[in-house]
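Box 3.1. Reading complex inputs
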Amino acid sequence: MAVTEAAAAPRVEHEDHEAMVETGRPGELLPARYGGARAFGWWGMVWLIATEATLFALLIASYFYLRFRFGPPWPPDGIENPKLGLPLLMTVVLWSSSPCVHLAERGIRAGSQRRLRLGLAAGWVLGATFLVLTFAVEWPTTLKEFGPTTNAYGSMFFTITGFHAAHVVVGLLMSAWVQVWAARGLYDRERHLSVENFAMYWQFVDAVWAFVLLAVYISPRL
Amino acid sequence: MTGIQTGIATVTAPAPDEIEWRGEVVRQLDADWSEGGGIGSWIGTVDHKRIGLRYLYTGLVFFAAGGIESLLIRLQLAGPDLHVVGPEAYDQLFSMHGVTMMFLFAMPVLSGFGNYFVPLMIGARDMAFPRLNAFGYWMLLGAGLFLYSSFLFGKAPDNGWFNYVPLGDSRFTPGINIDYYLIGLILLGISSTGGAINFIVTILKLRAPGMTLNRIPIFVWGELAMSLQIVFALPALTLASVLLMLDRTFGFHFYDEAGGGDPLLWQHLFWVFGHPEVYIVALPGFGIASAIIPTWVRRPIVGYTYIVIGELSVALIGFGVWVHHMFAVGLPNMTLSFISLASFMVAIPSAIQVFAWLATLVAGRPVLKTPLLFVLGFIVIFVIGGVTGVMFAAVPFDQATTDSYFVVAHLHYVLVGSAVFPIFGALYHWGPKVTGHLLDERLGKWSFWLMFAGFNLAFFPQHLLGLYGMPRRVYTYDADLGWSAYNLASTIGAFILGVGILVTAYNWVRSRRRGDPAGNDPWRGETLEWYTTSPPAPYNFVTVPTVRSREPMWDQPELAGGAQHPDAGGRPLTGGHLTLSTSPLDARPQAVVHMPHSTPWPFFLTLALLLVAVGVLLNAWPVAIVGVVASGAGLAGWYWPRGQTQET
Amino acid sequence: MLDPSSGAGRRVAGLWWMLFWISVVAVAVVVGLIAVAIVRRHRRPEATAGEGEGDDDIDRSPVAWGDRFVVLSGIVVTGVVLAVSFVVSLFVLNDLAAPAERQPLKIEVVAHTWWWEVRYPGGAVTANEIHIPVGEPVEVRLRTADVIHSFWVPELQVKQDLVPGMDNHLSLEADHAGRFRGQCAEYCGLQHAHMVFFVRAQPPAEFQDWLADQGRPAADPTSALAQQGRTTFEGSSCAGCHTIRGTTADGVLGPDLTHLAGRETIGAGVDRLDPDTLARWIANAQDDKPGASMPPTELTPAQVDAVVAYLLGLE
């Protein structure tokens, strides 16, 4: 094909319209529909997670800094060790959402709209349950004994769990967005970057919970 | 023949059917990439060059503001017991001088050069995230205006650019000065982090095919190193600021020792950010030097691999030395010794770069025009700052001179050296590419010598002031201490430096109207920004080139025409707003990406976030909540799927 | 620091001179290489035949000595110099931290915005002046009543911060008699510039006399005016902030004034202490030290004169 013709008619009618595009070099076609590490947005989410992970790491490091700066007892001022029962239940609830979201992503990669929608919905419900347990049960119970303005321990307790909960809230908003567009049929087996990115973010938030659990709830007992 | 003597590059005339082919490609690219005029285009532009230029101009305006602040400071200190400004105003001046120069001048201008030139140097049509790019700029402008609005109420931040507590907490500074500071920094953190992620992904994924890792221009490596640092350092500042906001606004106890908190926690968190921050400012400056030197000594850089490893090592080791800002705080000597060792060793990767540049200068044939003069000035000034920095790595010497004018001298030598001088060199080296006009060489030389002499007169005496016992951040001093003469000399030097800066400002404005046309490649440069027109068209290149060398413009003669033919590897990528996604290591083409068109959502999101900022500042929670909801709407508008071909 | 009057000061000065000369050599090398590059710039270019095309002036020849030069100068020589400097600095650090040979006199300094409270064993309390015996180590315990300050006497010792919640210490020793100026070295607010203090090193016997004197209650007024002044002081707001031991004035917000007359400055460095400056200070401290905690006085000028007469009798 002469160069001038190629320059004039770059778009090739493939069986899947606009799936492959001519670059203008003779005979060269490149995909225009793709996901994963070929997509810029995927990398954007990776680096966003890197900054948020750093934020959490520093917050938890600050927690341990204050704790070891002033020595035992910890919690200070006669506050009891945080109870484990409810947090462990919250852990089960939150971590159950992980496989749901994962199944949703694998589903759409295989082309299944059904698995996508069901997985996302289940994950959303479990995430929302986690938040309800946090804000309606765990926090009010804790506030009976101490609050964020009681002392540095209280400030840390509510800020760490609060930061994490805020990230869950953002995750639920993201999930709702993706579910709305999934219902409108936007995603298919080749293009579902938003699902991939949301899943990455959600697994990150679930992973951070491990550190929150360890630092805030378990480490005072060690 | 050579661009340097005549200022005009000679281009061999293309063959007739090539002209026709090229004309057709240009016509299609113009149609797909032009953003049009009008207010919509002004608010919604996503063109990295327009955005980069905005960063540059906005940063330079804040440079002027920071400069005026410094001149007022120097006037107040020109003699003992003066009353040019009172202590309240003085404290706001020195605090805002630091905040302005670090956050509103150095980072934006260096990002601006990065924004403009990274895509050009890697052969890409735009940054990876054009809308995020626009958002980063609007947030910078918004944060800067937000911070400076504090002056209107006489409530500018007044606790220094690092705002130690307890002085910065609600007990000792109850006014909104510090809230302005904290919220402003959080806004700036959002801007910088977005920009950094943009640079990282752009540099990893948008390089022209064939630009393997070891062919990446060092300026681009410098921007990558800077961006990696931003990603991992800014969270520390954001966290410190959020925790202090919680203490101040709601009575939390992170930093007050009575409640079990610790004032030193602020210092740790701040300097975990603050030390990498100085390298965030310095590394792009080093990158600019590595961009200017090869062109102006007419040979490739010596020691490329060492320089790259040097840039990345500085970025990494820079995270391990923050405690050296706290040597006098009362930490155990064991801790101090480890940090001292790391602080000595961090000088090595910088030394590697300096010697590589010197080797290139000696092996090449320097052309002593303004861009190279500024780089030479940078090297001398930065090395002086570097050796005093090594002195500070020695704990006892640090404990003797920290918080004195010796450290003020040191920090200005390293920062003005590694940022301001390279920036001015870049204005002369890249100015013609940006404006299409050459700058006046005579004015350039005047500017350089005035700046070099003025800077040294302003800051060298400050070493002596520190050794004679003058602490920093004092609004006046006694007549009988023997400090007066040095202070007066310093003030005079500062004004001479200011005049030198104004000469370049005049030169820039004059060149836009009366400068000679630059042509594509006035200096016969080696990297891809010289492959295209001056200024570049919105689509940057007629064809995205295939790169086969570290100095493509010197080694690939087919690039000289400004449009590498497809048979030689060039890709027109017509038929949409398209660029290439390539693999991170080898730059193999992987996909064709549809880039977003101009859009007002980044601007709108910025307004929403500013609403949140104002609401929090005034503790007007309904306003803040409206801002949060508006931000959600902004994000929704931004991400609303449009068309079948965009990334979804 | 360039004119040290203590062992510690001399060690730091020694470290400084070593680093200074190393730096001079380093800068000279860099400037020298730049000079070489400039001087050689018009030499004829190396042959570029076979490399790239065209008759342009780009020199593509490899620099055989390049990598070796960079490694040798940037890594090896720089690394050795830095390592040696680090080790020397460690020795100095160790010296400064070494415990005193004799049992040091222990005093306590409490920093306030913007003045220095100094407390001696035995009950002597003064402000903005520290007396020490020549040739004997004094251990200073550093505390703060409010924000972070920094204790710095350049001629005698490195600085150390006073941080809330931290129990910092500094060792002070002068090797000859004299007066040494100190100033707060951590920005602490509006009047950070006026937080000056003096260290007076005295022969040990003289120091003991001074210390004994400081421990005694305030001298009685010797004139009628001064007597009036004492009565006025005790009965006015002055007594609410200041202590004068031996009188009913026992406020703790401001400096102890029991032996005010022996001090060199008023307002922690605002002015030399004399009848005029003291009267000005009492009338309205805000004039010369805006933001200071001391409010303008409600006393009449005549009353102020009386108080000044009394206070300047308090040796």
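In summary: The longest strand of chain B covers residues 589-594.
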